[in-house]
Amino acid sequence: MGRIRIRVHRKDTRPKRSTAIIFAILCAVIATASACTGSTGAAPAISDTVQASGTGQASGTVYGCATSVSLPKDEAPHSAPVEWWYFSGHLSGKDANGHVHTYGYEDVIFQFLGLTPQPIYLGDMSVTDLTRKAFQFAGEQDSYPVPKTANRFALHGGNWTMSGGSGADTLKASLPGYGLDLGLSATEPAVIEGNKCGSISMASLGSSYYYSWTSLVTTGTIVDHGVTLKVTGKSWMDHQWGPIAITGGGGGGWDWFSMQLSNGQQYMLFFIRDKQGQIVETAGTRVAPGGKDITYLTAANIGEKATGSWTSPATHIKYGSGWKVTVPGGQLTVTPDLRNQEVDLLKTQMNVYWEGDVTIKGTIGGATVTGDGYTELAPPVP
């Protein structure tokens, strides 16, 4: 889903205090940012009104909503306080000796408005090397005027670049040991998430607009420790924007799943937790094979339960590790491909979360299914 959590440890939780802290944090991590101001910017209202029917696919129609996701217009940056463009995917390729290498990857850029005179951009990237059984991550930061790119986006964080629109995208980024140069092309329509308006509640964390490209054929190259491999695979893209409480609001967190299954179905599942770790908001979307139709899911027909746990040796945060996920007509077992896929950017971005490549097995409608996915765990802010 493409999310960011700024970790703020504090005793005084009054709103003015937390706002001052987040200004200081973001000014500190963005070396190129100008002096901070006291303005947080206006938070746009998210309408909960759904008045018209539709498939949920983005076609430029507003579905009779007071406000709604409309593509391709909403591919471009907005004036929302927080926004992100998030890609994750699964790649494979052969080296010169014919050996197959497989990878998972995450590539995201966050945009923050109103915290400084000029917008702030944070980039996160990770590579899960399933052949080496290794995980690597890095972060970049930047500050520049919002790009004026109608119907598309063109962003950068340091030397990392990300651009695209209408389901055709390009990603270029590198970190120690790995470099990605990828082209992505949608094989199915975009999916409006949350409801037909594309708005989603995040409980104490706020709300946002949200759409996804859930089936992106991916080609390009990965540089693996100096060796360039041609790779192919499939990716997923999330775009969200709105008045999202990046400091944790009431101290909540979330579990998020993207799933691309062998029966052609795809799922987005999103479980918001309060500061005690209890699920207080549930949302999901099931995409039919070929992207022909979608179904909006709620706590009445989806659920998840961790089957194990893993404690980070770096941050000492305890995460779920392995999950049983209930969907309409079946149950899925989600298994991390590596236990340690924690993105620990506390020193540079005051941000930490678990973002991992996962394998999926289970049954739906009595038939066996398998698949690949990504899981994100953002633990409650202490």
Helix content: under 10%
What's the structural domain tally?
1
Find the count of extended strands (DSSP E, 2+ residues): 24
Residue windows where pLDDT falls under 50 for at least 5 positions: 8-25, 27-64
Q: Which range does the strand content fall in? A: over 45%
Classified in CATH, the superfamily is: AttH-like domain
End-to-end Cα distance, whole Å, is 22 Å
Shape: globular
Report Rg.
Answer: 20 Å
The largest β sheet comes out as:
12 strands, antiparallel
The structure class reads mainly beta
Order of helices and strands: HEEEEEEEEEEEEEEEEEEEEEEHEE
> What is the architecture at the second tier of CATH?
Beta Barrel
CATH fold descriptor: AttH-like fold
Structure in a nutshell:
With 382 residues, the chain is mainly β. It is built from two helices and 24 strands.
Structural summary, described in words:
The chain is mainly β and 382 residues long. It has helices at 15-29, 346-349; strands at residues 82-94, 100-112, 120-129, 134-143, 153-157, 160-165, 168-175, 178-186, 191-192, 199-201, 207-224, 227-242, 253-261, 266-273, 279-287, 294-297, 303-306, 309-311, 318-320, 323-327, 330-336, 342-345, 351-364, 367-378. Strands 1, 2, 3, 4, 5, 6, 7, 8, 9, 10, 11 and 12 form a twelve-stranded antiparallel β-sheet that branches.
